[in-house]
Amino acid sequence: MKDSMIRGADIVVRSLIAENAEIIFGYPGGAIMPVYDALHDYHDEVRHVLTRHEQGAIHAAQGYARVSGKVGVCIATSGPGATNLITGLADAQIDSTPLVCITGQVASHLLGTDAFQETDVLGISMAATKWNIQVRRVEDIAPAIAKGFYIAKSGRPGAVLIDITKDAQTNFGEFNYSKCLGFRSYKTHIPVEKTAIQEAAFLINMAKRPYVLFGQGVVLGQAEAELKAFLDKSGIPAACTLLGSGSLSEDHPNYVGKLGMHGNYAPNMLTNQCDVLIAVGMRFDDRVTGDLKRYAKQAKVIHLELDPAEINKIVRCEVAVLGNCKDSLSLLTDAVKANAYPEWMAQFKELAEQERASVIDPDLTPTKPGLTMGEVIHQINKYKADDAILVTDVGQHQMIAWRYFNYKKPRTQVTSGGLGTMGFALPAALGAQMYDFSRQVVCVVGDGGIQMTIQELGTIMQTKAPVKIVLLNNNFLGMVRQWQQMFFDKRYSFTELDNPDFVKIAEAYNIQAQKVTERGNLQEAIEDMLIHDGPYFLEVVVEKEDNVFPMIATGCSVEEVRLS
Amino acid sequence: MKRYTIFVITENFIGILNRITIIFTRRGINIDALTASESRLEGIHRITIEVTASEDTVIQLVNQIEKIIDVIKAFHHEDENVVYQEIALYKIPVSRLDGGLEKIIRQHNAKIIAAEPDFVVLELTGHKEQTQELLEILKTYGLLEFARSGRVAVAKRMLTIDSFVK
């Protein structure tokens, strides 16, 4: 053996360092132990965060990736370690989050024999990953990691899983790392077609009531400035999807609000009155469109999209502009006339006023005794930093926080959009905070979701990540309860929770905690939390049976959005 | 609903077939037949899938197949635009052989490719309609076993794999 040869496990770690991975979230176990042994030698170059569960590790990696724009990295062992990653893989894949997950696997001679902690991770993860591979030979480790990083972050980002057998980790090989720069079966750059831009500009220039819907493609394509420039010149009103939030400041004059089931009133209603619909980096999720048979039928649709498989998948478009919206938006900005639509814009404002009077004011400045989720977010807005990151879980609190949080900067929104994973917020907030301790990370979570990954308070304790956790406690699985109230005759089947003393739990983890039950104490508690140096846990007991409105019920059209 | 042939040109990568079939499974679409083989170029495989679906659905399937990292190209054709063949084997007991069967074999251009003491094996190559017609007839001759391949097909248009592999 040559002196230059190193263990496969060292190759794994040195490859990660070569990809500029600065932090790894993970959990050790038998089949990944050689890599953990190697990590011991490199702790000056790459940081490892030990979570309390593999699901926590992958959600933390997602939170880190979403805030940083870099590839999130997580490591787990074979068998249960790997299967615990599946929810996070599916979540990252559907929300286009770049991840590289490395799992240990039993030694190659044991593959297929039902060995201890053996599962067919390749098979199980196939439907939840952009790409996956099993590495059985030491010489294949570095090329697999190089390819994995390239695939995870290029094109439409996604989740990659690399399964490495234990013998590949312990065998010795040469380490010559070369980054992957592309390969023939995978095209990442789609040049924007000029004719598509011309056709799109023609439709836009003729339009009386054009309307822009923007999604996470703007964030992923780093096209925030291009979107703003396009809107500035074209004067077209624009609404965002859940994951598009933050890519345009909510103070922008063209910004008209949020789309979807619990989005704003005007943006949903007027989807069915525009004449040209310009979809930018969004995929017409069913939570955005409602009943497709009655969705924007009057409009000619222009779709700016990177992923060819999204074109005509849900909504048939008149003009497809393939490519990164950073490129297509700037070409389109040059091609459209400077314009303004005062009457059209006034329609948005009029409906927004209706929403303000019947939903927003009662939510933010309630007169009834019970605390609302909305007023909590309202108070957070008053004291938060402009670049504060909001991490939410899934359910009523998620929709309320999204509706009322004042987004001003890109990459300040971290939530589980496509998959709707309860338990996402706490570990994702940890991951977001690990990227930058100086940023405010506010984790808004419900009493149901927090209990799915509450063990990660331990990771917050150990890392001292100064996450501000705001638990909105209504002692219910609130969103399901709302549906039971509205669509199942108030038959509250298994949605009421007998909860533990959350403050005691937080304090047991050495995290400063406070509980608020009265409106009079809310403002001060939020101020205390946000100026506190270190992690903080604030439980706010809110009204038990509040509902989230506006709402487009399942099967309804966007114009059937209800205010109550 | 129409019958389509989907061609997939892929790298020879472990699990690629699984990744492709998952796309059909997710949408609850049945694959009528599937064949996989090496292509003219080393290291590149071609998979031919026969499916009955609407054109919209087929386009979406093809787009999603092409999105798979190790797929080089995927496209679809209606039956008129492909040249295709299937092969069928029929096992008939010797005890049922008679003059009528000889006529049938001649009429259908089938071949006897194996003769054992107890049975003979007939082979017919052609479109599914042809092999199906013979199947129906041979059922009355005590057919012991029947097997039919998926289609092997080439597109009629003058495009070669080389143009996709750069």
UniProtKB/TrEMBL annotation, chain A:
Recorded GO MF terms: acetolactate synthase activity; flavin adenine dinucleotide binding; magnesium ion binding; thiamine pyrophosphate binding
Organism expressing this protein natively: Algoriphagus ratkowskyi
Similarity comment text for this entry: Belongs to the TPP enzyme family.
Protein name: Acetolactate synthase
Residue intervals of the Thiamine pyrophosphate enzyme N-terminal TPP-binding domain: 7-122
Cited SUPFAM superfamilies: DHS-like NAD/FAD-binding domain, Thiamin diphosphate-binding fold (THDP-binding)
Domain Thiamine pyrophosphate enzyme TPP-binding: 393-540
Cited InterPro entries: Acetolactate_synth_lsu, AHAS_TPP, DHS-like_NAD/FAD-binding_dom, THDP-binding, Thiamin_PyroP_enz_cen_dom, Thiamin_PyroP_enz_TPP-bd_dom, TPP_enz, TPP_enzyme_TPP-bd
Automatic annotation (TrEMBL), chain B:
GO cellular-component term (any): cytosol
Catalyzed reactions: 2 pyruvate + H(+) = (2S)-2-acetolactate + CO2
Pathway: Amino-acid biosynthesis; L-isoleucine biosynthesis; L-isoleucine from 2-oxobutanoate: step 1/4; Amino-acid biosynthesis; L-valine biosynthesis; L-valine from pyruvate: step 1/4
Presence of keyword Amino-acid biosynthesis: yes
Example of a GO MF term: acetolactate synthase activity
Residues covered by the ACT domain: 5-79
Entry-linked CDD domains: ACT_AHAS
A biological-process GO annotation: isoleucine biosynthetic process
Keywords, sorted A to Z: Amino-acid biosynthesis, Branched-chain amino acid biosynthesis, Transferase
Pfam families assigned: ACT_AHAS_ss (PF22629), ALS_ss_C (PF10369)
InterPro entries, alphabetized: Acetalactate_synth_ssu (IPR004789), Acetolactate_synth/TF_NikR_C (IPR027271), Acetolactate_synth_ssu_C (IPR019455), ACT-like_dom_sf (IPR045865), ACT_dom (IPR002912), AHAS_ACT (IPR039557), AHAS_small-like_ACT (IPR054480)
Annotated EC: 2.2.1.6
Record-linked SUPFAM superfamilies: ACT-like
UniProt xrefs under PANTHER family: ACETOLACTATE SYNTHASE SMALL SUBUNIT, ACETOLACTATE SYNTHASE SMALL SUBUNIT 1, CHLOROPLASTIC
Role description: Catalyzes the conversion of 2 pyruvate molecules into acetolactate in the first common step of the biosynthetic pathway of the branched-amino acids such as leucine, isoleucine, and valine.
Subunit structure: Dimer of large and small chains.
Sequence similarity: Belongs to the acetolactate synthase small subunit family.
Name of this chain's protein: Acetolactate synthase small subunit
Taxonomic lineage from the root: Bacteria, Pseudomonadati, Bacteroidota, Cytophagia, Cytophagales
